[in-house]
Amino acid sequence: MIRAVIFDLDGTLIDSAPDIHAAANQVLEGEGLPHISFDQARSFVGRGARVFVERMEHAVTGGNEPARTAHLHAQFLYFYERAHEHTRIYPHVPEMLAELRGNGLALGLCTNKPLRPTQAALAYLGWKDMFDVVIGGDSLDVAKPDPAPLLAVVTGLGLTLPEIIYIGDSETDAETAERAGSRFGLYTKGYRKTPAEQMFHHFRFDDYRQMAGQMFQPG
Ligand SMILES: O=C(O)COP(=O)(O)O
Ligand SMILES: [Mg+2]
Questions:
Q1: For 45, 75, 81, 194, which has the most beta carbons within 10 A of its beta carbon?
Q2: CATH of the domain at 91
Q3: Are residues 166 and 67 part of one domain?
Q4: Is the pTM of this model over 0.90?
Q5: Do 114 and 107 contact (CB within 8 A), yes or no?
Q6: How far does residue 9's CA lie from ligand 2's centre (Å)?
């Protein structure tokens, strides 16, 4: 029996790519480096802030230099925590979350966004108490696609894998769920690069009004 739904954040519940793009370009601007495009920024999201910065640095300088990467990473975290202005909740997410809660389900969050920007975004969105357990990209020594963060949310909720469903938008989330052995629902309007049908998932949807109906289908 399903007792909780665990969500990814960026590209799944919220469209945060515009703010991530803006934060990236604030960093690059400050360093006198060229900007990245919106499509580049969106395609760099998914493996956490450190990997995002490495991809960004590689795109604008052609390589990664450890000291420069560390500096850019620190700069990026500063702006990232403050970048909310353009972040939007995807359509019908609030009703969907309220409905799950109303049905007595627990809610978890398993994101690769570092914990401080995650907490800042949740506060900005009025979701400070929305999730019973929150694990960010730097909460553990390993991040998704390692299954440990997802398993930590499950354990934190006091549940076992068959009692949860994980919902995410990216290759990273699909791999995490597959490696954990979790049931996985793919939101197809996020930041994935692979055709949805080629990705691991048990069900998929492009409208949150369809999620609950699909979630309880067997198979
Ligand atoms: O910050 C990232 O790289 C991705 O964040 P997500 O795990 O919430 O999609
Ligand atoms: Mg995501």
A1: 45
A2: 3.40.50.1000
A3: no
A4: yes
A5: no
A6: 6
